[in-house]
Design a protein that fits this description.
The complex is a heterodimer of chains A (about 240) and B (about 90). Chain A has about 240 residues and is α+β, with helices and mostly antiparallel strands. Chain A has two domains: about 120 residues, Beta Polymerase, domain 2; about 70 residues, no CATH class. Chain A has a five-stranded mixed beta sheet. In chain A, a hairpin with a 2-residue loop joins strand 4 and strand 5. Chain A is flat. Chain B has a three-stranded antiparallel beta sheet. The chains are: A alpha+beta (about 240), B alpha+beta (about 90). Strand 1 of chain A pairs antiparallel with strand 3 of chain B, so a sheet runs across the interface.
């Protein structure tokens, strides 16, 4: 087993070490010649880097809880540390990203009642002195290709990036269904990867749910489109089950 | 709890989900001991290394009831919308 880099004992991490671990993992996953020792070292660094997000993540979660409660919203807030396998997948999927800049190793999520509540909590997060989000990804105004909706804010605590997700219950229901289906089909449907029959149907459903959430009646054309897409989508799913 | 419990410590839970069965197969509680939870996360992931359809995830919240909402995919999902009802 290789030793720690001199001068960085006691579990202290440097960006250079973390990025080197990311490159080593990518190389191994692509089938390049990487020794088992080097790969194990890189996995150890991954675990250390993830563990270094534990306290910043808790701080971010407490901050999100405060923002949710201050707005008078029901507190449904959970945090999660990203799974190692998902980190590995992301390193391969985003080959130019430096591992030290990965933004969602620590993530917390609030499920809120309405669109207004999402915007109110978003505004409150943006006002927090010294914790101003580095970036906001507004997937409500501009949904992802898959139909995923929600607001993501990247904040920093103790020099670690943490991703905050804000969703309404309606957005959340769609996202949870997609998670379940992704696990069943072994595709990243939220990332628009998978069978066309299923992706088109889910995207159309998301559009209809978004309209209804705003109090807009879904027109006949979209209802018919969803009905047709549902048929092809469920036919595909039944084929997978069979 | 929901309205006033925002200062309660995070309760950590390690979940092991079998995608092939669509079932949660383990749920381990660590209380507010985050350090122990992260160490157990590493160990549990290594235990299931190479088993692609097993998901090990560490989550934390005020209670497991909240996690059943925010991470409902590990607990059978949510049914509400007519668009997603009655689908396999």
């Amino acid at each position: 087993m290789r030793s720690e880099t001199p001068g960085h004992a006691d579990g202290e991490l440097t960006k250079a070490q973390v990025n080197k671990a990311g490159r080593t993992i990518r190389g191994k996953m692509r089938g390049e010649p990487v020794s088992q020792d080097d790969f194990q070292w890189a996995l150890g660094m991954l675990r250390k880097f993830r563990a270094a997000h534990r306290i910043p993540l808790t701080k971010a979660t407490m901050g999100l809880r405060s923002a949710v409660v201050a707005q008078g919203c029901r507190m449904e807030v959970t945090q999660r540390l990203k799974r190692a396998t998902t980190i590995l997948d992301k390193l391969v999927r985003e080959p130019t990203m430096a591992f030290s800049t990965m933004q969602d190793i620590g993530g917390c999520r609030a499920v809120l009642g309405t669109l207004d509540e999402v915007r109110q909590v978003q505004q409150r997060l943006m006002k927090r002195g010294g914790r101003f989000p580095e970036r906001i990804y507004d997937y409500i105004s501009t949904p992802r290709e898959s139909g995923y909706r929600g607001v993501h804010a990247i904040v920093q605590y103790d020099n670690r990036k943490i991703e905050i997700q804000l969703r309404t219950r309606v957005m959340h229901e769609w996202a949870i269904y997609v998670e379940l289906l992704s696990a069943q089909l072994q595709f990243d449907l939220k990332g628009a990867q998978g069978p066309r029959e299923v992706l088109e149907w889910l995207e159309a459903v998301s559009r209809a749910m978004a309209l209804e959430e705003k109090g807009i009646v879904v027109d006949r054309a979209l209802v018919d489109q969803i009905s047709e897409l549902r048929e092809t989508g469920t036919t595909y799913l039944e084929g997978e089950e069979g | 709890m929901k309205a006033n419990g925002h200062r309660t410590p995070i309760q950590h839970f390690l979940l092991v989900f079998d995608q092939s069965k669509g079932e949660l197969i383990e749920q381990i509680q660590f209380g507010s001991d985050g350090e122990r939870a992260v160490a157990a996360y590493d160990e549990k992931e290594q235990e299931y290394y190479g088993r692609e359809r097993i998901e090990v995830v560490l989550v934390g919240s005020d209670s497991i009831e909240t996690i059943k909402v925010t991470h409902a995919n590990y607990f059978g999902g949510i049914v509400g919308s007519k668009y997603l009802a009655d689908i396999a």
